[in-house]
Amino acid sequence: VLLVRNKKEFSALSSKCPHYGAPLSKGSPGSRNGGEKLWQGALATSAIAGVFRGERLRCPWHGACFNIRTGDIEEYPALDCLHCFKVTVEDGKVFVTAKRKVWTSPAGTKHKQHLGVGAISAFPICFQDLESSLRVKATSKRCPLSRTTVLLLGGGVAALVCAETLRQEGFTGRVIMATKEKHAPYDKSKLTKEMNLKAEDIYMRTPEFLHAHGIELWTEKEAVSVDFQKQKVHFMDGSSQKYNQLLIATGCHSSLPKVPGADLHNVCVLQTPEDSSKILELATGKNLVIIGASFIGTRLERVPSHHWLLGWEWLFLQHSSLELPSEHSPHPFQMLQDKGVKFYMKAELRELTGKDGKVAEAVLASGEKLPADVVLVGIGAFPNSAFLKGTSIARDASGAILVDLHMQTNIPNVFAAGDVVSFPVALLNGERCSIRHQQVAEAHGHAAALNMLKKEKRLHTIPFFWTTMFGKSIRYAGCGTGYTDTVVKGSLEQQKFLIFYIRDGVVTAAASLSCDPMVALIAEALYAGKQISKEEAE
């Protein structure tokens, strides 16, 4: 149990984050967990108060936030809530009452053990509150009499959170999630971590869960066109579906390089569980060439192979506005170099050559040839919006759908969310940006659902990103696009640091390695609208 005191009020909650099980006690102001000097410096900075502010508690690992009074989820990436236990104060002592576990007596009778004060009442056996760190938020049920249909295109986290939020907020109409994927929504961040997992091992919600909550899941159902005037979507299989409200959350896709030989066998992209398993099988013990030095390229530590990694520059974390400054980027790569990964930075791929239809070599512009049994391409993401070509929906030059802070497009009753959109970013003074990460997509889906229900909810979130290499986690919060200066605390060489990104004299983002919960603290300060000057960062 996590006991929280906010001024004179006490709350008792589950002690682990329901996302990946992070200890929420590490997010409290008394936490150290390394980096004592950095922590003390943060406490001395008036702009950074604590990792729980007001009635919010923020997870130090991935930034999920919970209401300390109710345990309800208030910020993603976690989907579920915390248990909230009864607290009483008597004679200066705090008592917490909770169901500890269900046990069976020698006579075979089930009993419930309690922790704290209070009589044991004869209510039915229920969930073991102390043994489970999560609580699914209550939802409304589907009413057959309601003729309103919300159609969600896409099977990722944006569509999933939109569907769940609709039910949590009392919507009783029809909710349809249509995806070209074969699976229920799954945790894509795990595709590079445990590459031998099956899709069902990483489901965020099972098909049974969705069915129980009145959410229809249509798999292998790809949209090919939308008639916005008739409010109808046409699918690849020839079917169509009318809607009252539409969410476009079709995500993005990888693309193969435009070089000779890109169509050879064993030239791969990583987008699905099947791709992940295939790459692991093909590359184990073989020569793997990775094109691109961004997220996918730097996270394939689970593949026991000989790695060559090609990048046009030090691109680590630079896509989607989450970047380490170029002068510091080589240091995180050192972790990979220490494990035998060979880097060819600022290198250009000229062609891929093959034998018997399979890739055999990657030829660089310099003429150097790298042996390649498998080539993995991770050179950027492109919006899945081609099916909207020729319609009146507003898109930018890359194909990203333009939305406002209500996730509303320029077409009535049509919303968009996640990787497929470009949206105004508050930290950039409203400048539009595409930020393609799980937490942001979930926040989009939540805001879209509330605005479908006419609740007039503006998107208010601080982007929070994380990545792990060989057991070391990098946290990032904010949006560093267009930064002009940095403040570095700690040591990059020793792989223990905190970096502030400065734009127009104030901090707009921060990244850290082995300095938890600093980034969570900074995220909460930015969320509260605090401006941290360069001088305060220093």
Automatic annotation (TrEMBL):
Domain Rieske: 1-96
Keyword Transcription on entry: no
Keywords associated with the record: 2Fe-2S, FAD, Flavoprotein, Iron, Iron-sulfur, Metal-binding, Oxidoreductase
PROSITE patterns registered for this protein in UniProt: RIESKE (PS51296)
Pfam families in UniProt: Pyr_redox_2, Reductase_C, Rieske
Cellular-component GO terms for this entry: cytoplasm
InterPro entries per record: FAD-oxidoreductase/Apoptosis, FAD/NAD-bd_sf, FAD/NAD-binding_dom, FAD/NAD-linked_Rdtase_dimer_sf, Reductase_C, Rieske_2Fe-2S, Rieske_2Fe-2S_sf
Gene3D superfamilies: 3.30.390.30, FAD/NAD(P)-binding domain, Rieske [2Fe-2S] iron-sulphur domain
GO MF terms held by the record: 2 iron, 2 sulfur cluster binding; metal ion binding; oxidoreductase activity, acting on NAD(P)H
Source organism, top-level taxon: Eukaryota
Family: Belongs to the FAD-dependent oxidoreductase family.
The name this protein goes by in its record: AIFM3 factor
Organism expressing this protein natively: Eolophus roseicapilla (Galah cockatoo)
Organism lineage string: Eukaryota, Metazoa, Chordata, Craniata, Vertebrata
